[in-house]
Amino acid sequence: MGLKMIELTLQAIEDRHSIRSYIDRPIPEDVKRQLEQCLAEGNEADGIDLQLFTEEPMAFGVSKLAHYGHFEGVRNYVAVIGPKGSDERCGYRGEQFVLLAQQLGLNTCWVGLTFSKKTVKTLIRLRDEDELKALIAVGYGQGHGKHHTIKSPEEICANYGASPEWVRHGVQMSILAPTAMNQQKFRFKWLGDNRVQAKKGFGFYTAIGLGIAKLHFELGAAPHIVDWVEP
């Protein structure tokens, strides 16, 4: 990824907010083609399967959970699919889609529970080893959202003050990552050189959240290449 593309993606990180209410405006065909191309290229690369559905209102329209989660007007979404144990990679890949969608003028929201899984499972293609991990709502939002309370860099990285600037910038980008219930249950620690330890906390969707946060960290740390170390 070139420096100009990194700059645009970092801007998308700062501009992105989770949007739950959408207007009835179809995604233009040229934008849809760019999204589908991104998904196809990624799906060929690592075994994670992201499937885009447009003008399909049933996954959220028939779900009482969707109304409980305050979702309105969702007609487009991506099903995030992968084998058992792939949650972190699913988060990483799904967030790549989210940031591209943001750059194309769309709004998004990661969705873990508040949709009709029964409906979605009748539409998606599942290999024997695959599981439906989450959905990503996408479209034109009613507004562009707002900042939520986030943890401080020092809470996310214990040796933040002693870390080099590229690590600090990675941490700053990571705390803008969407996580379940905005709990940010991930932690980083610089171990010297390019080595960074990444650790998830306990709870639902924490592995997906860690994958999202690691992507944000890598983008913030660029052009440094992060050498991830397991805890």
Write the layout of secondary structure elements.
Layout lengths: L2 H13 L13 H18 L2 E5 L4 H4 L2 H5 L8 E7 L3 H17 L3 E5 L5 H5 L8 E10 L13 H4 L8 H10 L11 E5 L4 E6 L5 H16 L5 E3 L2
Parallel strand pairs: 6-7
Antiparallel strand pairs: 1-2, 2-4, 3-4, 5-6
Helix pairs in contact: 1-5, 2-5, 5-9, 8-9
| DSSP strand tally | 7
Q: Please, what is the average pLDDT?
A: 92
Helix content: 25-40%
Q: Numbering strands along the chain, what is their spatial order in the largest sheet? A: 1-2-4-3
Helix-strand sequence: HHEHHEHEHEHHEEHE
Distance between the termini: 28 Å
The outline comes out as: globular
User: What class do helices, strands and sheet pairing give?
Assistant: alpha+beta
Largest sheet: 4 strands, antiparallel
Based on CA atoms alone, the radius of gyration comes out at 17 Å
Portion in strands: 15-25%
What is the count of DSSP helices, taking H or I runs of 4+ residues? 9
What does the model show?
It contains 9 helices and 7 strands; from the N terminus they run H-H-E-H-H-E-H-E-H-E-H-H-E-E-H-E. It has 231 residues and is an alpha+beta fold. The chain has a 4-stranded antiparallel beta sheet. The longest helix has 18 residues.
What is the structure about, briefly put?
By secondary structure, this protein is α+β, with helices and mostly antiparallel strands.
Features:
18% strand; 231 residues; 40% helix; four-stranded antiparallel β-sheet; alpha+beta; 7 strands; three-stranded mixed β-sheet
